[in-house]
Structures are given as C-alpha cells and as structure tokens.
C-alpha cells in the first residue's frame, strides 16, 4: 500500500485483504457506509466510494433489507493476482472500472498508469498487457460509462421526445462523470460503440420525416455535441469546488457586488435590465438551447410524423 493512495482506496484495500484472508466470508456483512465513517473518520461520500469500488471488483454485493455482504465467490489472490483462468477481457474491465473510480473522484488529470497500478496493487508496466496506453484506457472508460445509460427498447413515439430523452441521458452521464466531456472531441471523435449508439438512436428518430441523410447526420451529431459542449465546464467546476470548498452558487453570490459595480454605471443597459429577471443555471441554459435547437430542426421537417 502506498502513501499516495486516496483514503477510499486505502480503506478498500484493508477490507479487500480481510475478504481474501477469509476473515470476512461469503454472505458476511461488511461495514456499512456509516460504520466506515465512524471507524476511519472519513466523509460519507468517501465511505460510499469504498463500497462502490469493492462492488465493481465483484467482492461485495448489496442485499435488500440486509446491507452489503461479501459476494458468494470473491476473487482469490488479491488485486493483480487473479486466477490464471480469468481472461484478458475480465482483467481489462477491472482496470477500466478502477480508472473510472479515480477519474470520478479526482479528475482525469489525476489518472496515471502508475497511480492506477498502485490502486490495483500491481506495477504500472503490468497494466500494459491489457491496455496499450492511457489514451486507449480513456477510450475504454468513455465506452464503459456511456454503456451505463441504456436507451429504451421502446422509445417515445415522437421524434422530439426521443431526442430530448437522448439529451437528458447524456447530460446525466456527464453529471455523473465530470471528466467525460473533456475526453470527447468531435473533430477527432472517440469511436466507441456505446457513444455511437446515441447517434444511431437520434438518426432513427429522424427517419421518415423528409430529411436527407446529410441533414439527419448533422442534426444527430449537433445534438450530441451540444450536450457535450455544455458539460465541458463540469470538471473545472468540480475541481474548483473541491480545492476551494466554495460551490459555484456561492462563488456567484460572492461576485454580486463586483458585478453590480460593472453594470450599474450604465455601460451595459441591456444586460442590467435583463439580469434582474433571469435565473441562470447549467440546466436552464441546457434546456433553453435544446428547445431552440429542436424548434429550428422542426422547421426542416417536411413529412409530418405518423
């Protein structure tokens, strides 16, 4: 165990060791989030990450009415010392899950192969047997998290409702994984199946509406890029809130005096008149732009939907 490990990783390693040594047997309850906060003196969010990491490794599972228990068949040998029969796909998936946990907690900049190896209890070089580079790892991470939000088999009947649902699911993903938007690039797109699935879903929604293929493709990719563009600010805001302890709303309230000094002198009359009646938030800006985008697309439709 290294001193650079995050608190949640150190606690998870201790519990992992107890499971591997047989001190905690299949079906035994593991410490709850509340018990973890009390024993190790960490925040509830950190305790939740401990159980989430162990769950992603397949070591524990949640049982309704009971709590979190050791899984029936926990992996033996500890991190990086898996049974020989475990295939490369399972190893790679485990690496990706651990990388996502790090990126979610601390941002993509904190994710290095050395750090990831330390979290998994293996050397950084051993990771390259399963992923060729950090760049490939990020691609796998993006595909994995896009796979978290399953598009419904029976979509809403109207094209607009379908696109609104796709946008809402994408925004939810970016909220859950603030690093994700910065990892995407429409000029050099990540060719990930679960991301392309959103494009395919949008294209299908626009089929049969009198739009040519070029218009449909531009509309689908524009929608994807629009949501991603709004989400790019999520990671910097997360980083700023974590390092300063000041939320975005608190920061804006603290700037009110300076903002008033800028606009109340009459230099920006339109801005001054409008700002008193405006209530801006990331969600309100996203929804306003989405409505405008879809309103414009509706004018291009020549065949009314059935």
Describe the structure.
The protein folds into 2 domains: 7-131, Winged helix-like DNA-binding domain superfamily/Winged helix DNA-binding domain (Arc Repressor Mutant, subunit A, Orthogonal Bundle), CATH 1.10.10; 151-306, Orthogonal Bundle (Tetracycline Repressor, domain 2). Helices cover 60% and strands 3% of the residues. The chain has 16 helices and 2 strands. It has helices at residues 7-20, 33-40, 44-56, 88-106, 113-120, 124-127, 134-146, 159-176, 180-183, 193-205, 213-231, 234-244, 248-254, 256-263, 269-275, 282-298, and strands spanning 60-63, 67-70. A hairpin with a 3-residue loop joins strand 1 and strand 2. It is globular and about 65 Å long. The relative contact order is 0.07.
Summarize it.
It contains 16 helices and two strands. With 306 residues, the chain is mainly α.
SSE layout and pairing:
Layout: H1 7-20, H2 33-40, H3 44-56, E1 60-63, E2 67-70, H4 88-106, H5 113-120, H6 124-127, H7 134-146, H8 159-176, H9 180-183, H10 193-205, H11 213-231, H12 234-244, H13 248-254, H14 256-263, H15 269-275, H16 282-298
Antiparallel strand pairs: 1-2
List keywords for this structure.
306 residues, mainly alpha, Arc Repressor Mutant, subunit A, Tetracycline Repressor, domain 2, 2 domains, two-stranded antiparallel ribbon, 16 helices, globular
Summarize the helix and strand pattern as letters: HHHEEHHHHHHHHHHHHH
CATH-defined superfamily of the largest domain: Tetracycline Repressor, domain 2
Largest sheet, in brief, is: 2 strands, antiparallel
Q: Report the count of strand segments.
A: 2
State the end-to-end CA separation: 61 Å
On the 0 to 100 scale, the average pLDDT is 82
The CATH topology of the largest domain corresponds to: Tetracycline Repressor, domain 2
The helical percent reads 55-70%
Task: Estimate the strand proportion.
Answer: under 5%
So what's the CATH class of the largest domain? Answer: Mainly Alpha
User: What's the tally of helices?
Assistant: 16
Q: Residue ranges: pLDDT <50 for 5 or more in a row?
A: 74-86
Q: How much is the radius of gyration in Å? A: 23 Å
Q: Looking across the biggest beta sheet, what order are the strands in? A: 1-2
How many discrete domains?
Answer: 2
| Backbone structural class | mainly alpha
Shape: globular
What's the architecture of the largest domain, going by CATH? Orthogonal Bundle
